[in-house]
## 1
Amino acid sequence: MSKRRAAGSGAVYPWRRRNKATGKLEQVGWVGMVDLGIVDGRRRRQALYGPMDGKKQLVERVSAAQHDKDRGMAPTGGKLTVEQWLADWLTAKENGPKPMRPRTLEHYRLIVRKHIAPAIGQKHLAKLTPSDVERMLGAQLKAGLSPRTVHHVRSVLRNALQRAVRDGKASRNVAALAEPPSVPEPDREAVVAFSERVGEFLAAVQRDRLEGMYVLTLALGLRIGEVTGLRWSDVDLDAGTLRVTHSLQWIRPVGQRAAQPQLLDPKTKESKRELELAEPTVEALRQHRARWRDEKLALGPRSLNDFDLVFTGPAGEPLNPRTISEQLRAILSKAGLPRIRFHDLRHANASLLLSAHVPTEMLSKVLGHSNATTTRNIYAHVLKPLREEAKRAQAGIFSATR
């Protein structure tokens, strides 16, 4: 005789709802009960639901949840909503032992506020499903949000739910289980076309007050925060060296509308680096320094350059990335050059150096990547023709001996 399952210990039953038209109860799916034991003096159970054709999957979910509970891993989220958990998670990211970078934290808050909380914020964390997440992502795509932004939305939610699983607030990471949106490959054709016309670009920026910034970025592949956060104390023109020690970031304080410039540590520990300057780059910086000194003298006490920055706005103010992007677009348009982002100057630098057979290990150090593997992964499209070139050279070795 088989042993009967105890009530509330993982059984699955028909899930019925009353049909408003007929007044009769009709099955609409399946429901499984997970016994959470005695909580606050009362027996508690968690209900899990599944569609008509999902009984097998629901049985597996209920069994897994019951197994987690028996091992002391039952979720304790209760009626905690997704929005409440996201708020707790962001606070932990800000004040934890490894605080998140302010700019990244601001980006996460924006994603939560604009894209996650309005869609699923009021749902109970413990009842959130992969289908809920997929419906949210699908609706955002239909509303015109770019696939890359929707991908970021899922990534932020996945990170938040991973901590919820760790802390026992959720039994599984439903964002990780949800189908991710397809993200198109980045358009590299514009960068490739630009890289072939670098000479025209350098001619177009001649005598621009920020010519030195464009030359330096193209020469070293600096990130926008690294070049705008560069201070004269980090530059030794006589030795022909430059140290990347800070990154200028525009952070919007909580409760304020305007972002404020801050000098922060670079992106990773590898981003702090010393770089060699070629003579043309040194000369461009010497010319820029002469112009910079004239501007500072003319401004006098009205100068806003409190950080001793190398590259600033006309009044000595820190450069805003949006302003730089607008100026670059204007330069490219006037010169009839391919339209690229400022960050693409970094990609152009990498493409040109790899094409000149600079080893990826050396390029990785120049760019401040955490390791050479990162460099190879990002610039695999550049390395492929170089591997073909090496293959032809390899064949030439044997043909020369015949």
Note: The longest strand covers residues 25-39.
## 2
Amino acid sequence: MTRKDIERIAIESNKLLPVELEALVSREEDASLRSPGTAAHYYRFLYLLTKELKPSLSVELGTHTGISAACLAEGYPEGCVITVDCIQRVLDISRRPNVEYFHQDSLKLLNIAEKSIDVFFSDTYHDGIKPKQEYELYLPYIKEGGILMFDDISLLPEMKVFWENFKPQGEKFELPVHGWAGFGIVIKDGACS
């Protein structure tokens, strides 16, 4: 998948999700299409990305209430989503059968094969340090051409510094799918780190 493909999906993500999922997203997170500054919320982007990419394995760090994982899972129900959070707060209405929920620190490596992750989403502690540590820990497990996503890259000064100085293995860019809070993307290349 190319940057152009991802940017097209971001533009298309201003459309409603399937009814039950749209209700969950809009009610629980105020991510309705009427949300100020968020013309295309990243939940819709996650759903459309996995619908088109058809990832075998998606890993999300920072489950929160499970809505992001639900969107990743419903986009491609044949794929597996692993989501990790140190606090258990997943809503029952967010649970999906193709999602594995882990209650642990994101820096405790999951038992997964190298180069097996198609989609990686970091949405944990927004201090600018933890996202970099997660990236470094999980990079060997992400396939060449894998999509890495970082939430809230403009939310706090620490995250702005992280994103500005971040030199990932691959093409780095931002998407307009999370308003002023920012949403970063990396398409992993095949070069050695």
Note: Helices lie at 3-12, 19-29, 42-53, 67-75, 130-138, 157-165.
## 3
Amino acid sequence: MRRDLVVAALLSGATVLLVATGCGAAKRPLTYDDMTAKVGGLEFTRITVDTARSAKELHEVLARNNPGVELRLPPVDFETHETFLVAGGPRSSTGYALRVVRVYEHGDHVQVVVRERTPLLGDPVRARVTYPFRLIALPSHKPVHLKWLGRP
């Protein structure tokens, strides 16, 4: 009898812990705006993952990774949105691209899932250095976690 009470108490405590940490929370799809085209052809020379909660922060991230480039900031309402940047670094041809697979809220954070498209052997690509990236605006101010499919 006493052992049953101890087990029940442990199980209820574990359930409370799971719910409190968001592990029991449902995944809710989150709409986003893709701002990549609005900032132009920037070149991120290394893998970059960053969140900006103000125009100043976004400008700093873009300027740090693109020194000397005249930057065009996209129109973002930072009162209600934040931006999330993911860049894959330099690639050897025009056949590479980053795609946002899905974005969802999960408990106390936002999860952004991306996949890198890599060219197949017969794809018509040009050999030149490219810098695939995605800049999205999210209607949230929660921490953002990245899940990059196909990468370790």
Note: The first strand starts at residue 27 and ends at 29.
## 4
Amino acid sequence: MALVVFAGTIGRSVIGGLSWDNMQYLVGLAELGHDVYYLEDCGEESWVYDWDAQQLTNDLAYPTSYLQDCLEPVGLADRWIYRAGANSTGIEIAEFDAICAEADLLIAWGDALTTWRAAYDSPRRRAFIDVDPGFTQISLAQGQHGLHKAVDNCESVFTTSPRIGTPTSPLPTYGRQWHHLWPPVALTEWPYVPDAPSQGLACIMNWKGFHDVEYQGAFYGQKNAEFEKFADLPRRITREIQMVQIGADAEELQRAGWRVRSGEELTRTPSKYRELIQSCWGEFGIAKHGYAAMQQAWFSGRSTCFLASGRPAIVQDTGVGAELHAEGGLLTFRTAVDAARCIAEVQSDYAAHSRAARDLAERTFAATEVLPRMLEIAAR
């Protein structure tokens, strides 16, 4: 058994999907028998969007209440610290520093540790997990200071892209060997749901959550830059399709035939997010423009949740189709015509695709299958 400190962004995200992206690791590590602690370090100040007040807040009470609500159901109610400057909530700082001194591994998830404190040097090994492949490497190449700190202080670096660092990738590597890691899903928290779905296809998306980038003359954008290719999809299919979104023009989407629903309301907590996914017929996934353009086989942690639930995932091809060779349950498309054809294929034998979705999750994305290899590499 190893003592593992996982640094994430649950309290700062205060949204169910991103919380699960972190929690899959926490649950998976615990299920493997490891002693797990959660760290969230905001740097000098904690600025979080308060969904209730509809404004930013630097009061630690809001994000830490949300964090506690996320971690208590998975057995980590008293195993976390939330830090901002000299202030903290949860485990006392001195106690947490002692935990770091005993830790076998510190995992920095995405941009969780742009502030690096002396205590984070104490664990025997440190690992960085890139969850925004391509954009992360470009940011490093362009000198993003906070990200450099985390990557430079980690002996091993992982990415959810299986192509970065290979001869087929045009992207920079920052001089590091990037080990591939599929986004894990904790199958005990995401069981197969045999019940007939009550909702139609769901496209869950944050319209423009991050920044566009340019690299060597190429533009890499967000989902808003990619959506126009598929805007008329509702008119091409017979099944209802809903857009569960944050930040989009709802009236424009409705005119195009989409059933528009509030992502803020339906995905705010981990439990609401899971309820939404498990009530849906399947996923219709549009990738960031950059992921589609880079073709580095990015795959979403959201899609793994659909698959684990036995809900087929119909997703835009980022190169992942050629990597996974799925025989049902997961279908990829490049055009609206392709997407409509994939939806019709799933409709023709939904039961088979539902079972194949769960099988793929168990075989490829189960946290208990994905994480041991990461831990083995990180321990070297």
Note: The chain has a mean pLDDT of 95.
